[in-house]
Design brief:
170 residues, Aminopeptidase, 4 helices, 28% strand, binds coenzyme A
């Protein structure tokens, strides 16, 4: 059976708003992350403290953006951080590290693509030249998403594939 979700109707521009996440979003971000856990698409924690400290107020954060749907619910989150010495992915220092999470009920509707537009702009402003995504080797939809955004395989390990997005002019 294919792990891929079906392509469904793209959300209209006006149906999704991309905003910088703020600390009071932690509970709603947590609910979105827990929906991924429940669907078997996430193994990392999804509680409000983790959402707050790992994504929303992370000291290495460049931009943590949320996609908000027409009813005000959080459909997805993308975090862009600066790689520092000793980072857990061994990403070259100064590169960006990106993570993307879209609730299964909104998947394949263009939310991730919208989030990446915002992250790319933030990366350019922060003078980031390369952005690395660290994706589970079995996570074919994550790999397909990053490929579609212009990331290309940079290195592989037994259980993960790293893809890099090279910013224009770098
Ligand atoms: C991977 C993920 C972030 C994609 O977000 P999304 O909002 O569904 O992505 P989009 O709808 O913006 O898709 C953009 C493009 O990516 C590709 N893509 C996204 N999901 C895909 C899937 N399930 N199968 C094949 N291609 C896919 C397609 O090329 C798509 O463009 P198209 O729909 O016009 O063909 C989302 O499914 C998710 O959160 N998955 C669980 C967590 C995860 O794997 N995160 C990333 C790796 S750590």
């Amino acid at each position: 059976m294919t792990p891929f979700t079906l392509k469904v109707t793209r959300l209209l521009e006006a149906e999704v708003t991309i905003l910088r996440a703020i600390p009071t979003d932690a509970d709603d971000v947590s609910a979105m992350l827990e929906s991924l856990v429940a669907a078997g698409k996430r193994t990392s924690p999804g509680d409000p403290d983790f959402a707050l400290n790992n994504y929303i107020v992370n000291p290495d954060g460049i931009l943590c953006s949320v996609a908000v749907g027409p009813d005000g619910s959080i459909l997805g989150l993308q975090s862009l951080k600066r790689a520092t010495i000793g980072n857990r992915f061994d990403t070259p220092v100064g590169w960006g590290i990106i993570g993307t999470h879209v609730t299964p009920s909104a998947a394949r509707r263009g939310v991730g693509a919208r989030l990446f537009q915002a992250s790319k702009t933030a990366a350019a402003t922060a003078a980031i030249t390369n952005i690395e995504a660290y994706i589970g080797a079995a996570n074919l939809e994550g790999q397909a998403y990053y490929e579609a955004m212009g990331f290309r395989t940079y290195r592989t390990a037994e259980k993960a594939i790293s893809k890099v997005f090279r910013m224009e002019g770098s």
